[in-house]
Amino acid sequence: MTIKIASSGKKRVDDAVHELMDTFGCNNMKVMIYFASTRYAPDEISAAMQSAFPETEIFGCSSAGEIAGGRMLKGALVAMAFDMDSILDIKIEVVENLRRKTDVREAFRSFERHFGEAADEMKPSEYLGIVLVDGMSGQEERLMDAVGDRTNVLFIGGSASDDMKFRSTCVYANGRSYGNAAVLALLKPAAPFDLVKTQSVREMGVELVVTRANEGRREIVEFNHRPAAEAYAEALGVSVNELAACFPGHPLGLIIDGEPYIRSPTHISGTSIVFQCSSAQGMPLSLLELTNLIDDTRGALARSKERLGGISGIIVFNCAHRALELEFKKLTEAYGEVFAEFPAIGFNSYGEQLIGHMNQTATMIVFR
Amino acid sequence: MAGKIKRMIERIVSVRAQGNETLERAIRTKLILKGINPATYTEQSDDDPAVIRKLEKMLRDLHHRIGRFS
């Protein structure tokens, strides 16, 4: 099983893609996933990557900082390639027009035709789903809901980003770039793999129950039957005026089996709060505080390595919030080094997916 | 009427997980993320139409495996 990584910081699309070609050489690569800074024009980078690796099943998305070779990069192109012995089979589908209707039926019909197996009978231990989705679409919850209703195969991934400009993000497949869309890739890896979800928070012992919400707008109107901003501020012991400054350090989490599924607030709207992830009415959300991101990530990878008995490659979907926290705490370099002993690539995302959609998390695919 | 939600949840979990505990956990997690916490529903729980609609959609997707749910 051979998994290779490559990266380039060259400014021009052609130069960056050529650097990847030089690194990968002309091996029998079956699958390639890549993440590209928006310094590379979306249509150009997707066309150039497909034409550089015409025999390879290739997909990716735009990014906001990249991970490769044990370093956190900016303005780069990073890629991971799998040879014929690593991935037995793959089918890539694009789901378009997410905002109009999140319909994954055709994608799943295609998966079933390709693999000759009903989606709801596919074994999660044999199949791996990867999802890359337009991070400005606001449709990740619906997408993950629709995918989860179709199959027990776990889909993991991240929301495409755009170098923190929050203007336009896109996914790449078929030598094209797509906005308002998602790439769903269904793979049959040759060796076991592990899906990791890690976040660096702990509960503060305060729960806020969503009593009124607008899920479509990711807005919480009331906690505990009180205006959301007022209840959140009181729980933190600050004034409403001070609340927004506390958001990065004190997100909320839906706790399931002791695991937080983080909802990150973005801003206050009137007396409501808008999040980067929706919450349903009746959900109890725990107030959280940050813990040591480096230690937690290192620990999560060590446990994964123990489960698998070794690691041959890692794909990291790392929340852009975490990247900002690392920058603020001057830990960016240390975080990159956590991945240095493995062939690992990744990008800073505008949301992370595993079973559902969440924030301030790193989801990772770890291959043995 | 009461208890329909609990019965629907049990049907979804049992058909999809087929006794596999890891899958059961994943399906329960999916339900909680949809806003339906299986642990909070009993045979005495009211038949909330909004929750039933969400579960019916899940059951429709499973229809070819389990037949019509009633």
What keyword list fits this structure?
heterodimer; A: 368 residues; alpha+beta; 2 domains; eight-stranded antiparallel beta sheet; 9 helices; 26 strands; 40% strand; B: 70 residues; 4 helices; globular
Q: What does this protein look like?
A:
Chain A is of the alpha+beta class and 368 residues long. Chain A has two domains: 268 residues, no CATH class; 90 residues, no CATH class. In chain A, 25% of the residues lie in helices and 40% in strands. In chain A, the strands form four sheets. In chain A, strands 14, 15, 16, 17, 18, 19, 20 and 21 form an eight-stranded antiparallel beta sheet that branches. Chain A has a six-stranded mixed beta sheet with strand order 1-6-2-3-10-11, covered by helices on one side. The termini of chain A are close together. In chain B, helix 1 crosses helix 2 and helix 1 packs parallel to helix 3. The C terminus of chain B is likely disordered. The longest helix of chain B is centred in the first third of the chain and has 14 residues. Chain B is globular. By secondary structure, chain B is an all-alpha fold. Chain B has one domain. The two termini of chain B are 14 Å apart.
